[in-house]
Amino acid sequence: MLKLARSNRVIGADFEVRVLFATYYVEYREGARRLLFSAEFSAFGDTALVFDFPDARHWQPPFENDILPDTHKHLILVRVTAAMQLVGTAPDWIADSPPRDRADWGEIMVKARAMLAVTASDVVTICNS
What is the pTM of this model? Predict the structure, then answer.
């Protein structure tokens, strides 16, 4: 289940996503590890171009040498997509170039919608943290 905590922060069981409109980033966290996705938000914040550069995807320091397998990158993209939709921003993912684009975007979107369906079936808690 995802919980909406503030208007730009979503908390899952073992992760957190912050949509940072002012700094043009989407931040994904697992414990002390962080990933940053550059983003360009529409004037109303309802859509965003989010940039996924697969060859450069790594944890932020001091964890930049930790391996991030493709299966885990896939899960992260599902979680970020669902979290952004929960805060009311539709993500439009952009890869660095078509030959390197992911072949699993359709699957990512389906899993994100499924994650949101589970969240909607539960009571979404609005936290003031």
Answer: 0.83
Single out the residue of 36, 37, 49, 45 nearest to residue 8, CA to CA: 45
Quick one: three-class SS letters along the chain?
A: CCEEECCCEEECCCCEEEEEHHHCEEEEEECCEEEEEEEEECCCCCEEEEEECHHHCCCCCCCCCCCCCHHHHHHHHHHHHHHHHHCCCEEEEEECCHHHCCCCHHHHHHHHHHHHHHHHHCCCCCECC
Please report the pLDDT score of residue 124 as a whole number.
Answer: 42
> Which tens digits make up the pLDDT trace of 101-116?
678 888 988 999 998 8
Q: Cα(first)–Cα(last) distance of the chain, in Å?
A: 17
Rounded (10°) CA dihedral 79, 45, 119, 125: 120
Tell me the pLDDT tens digit for each residue of 42-75: 877 688 888 877 555 789 899 989 988 889 988 9
Q: How far apart are CA 58 and CA 87, in angstroms?
A: 25
Q: Which residue has the higher pLDDT, 75 or 124?
A: 75
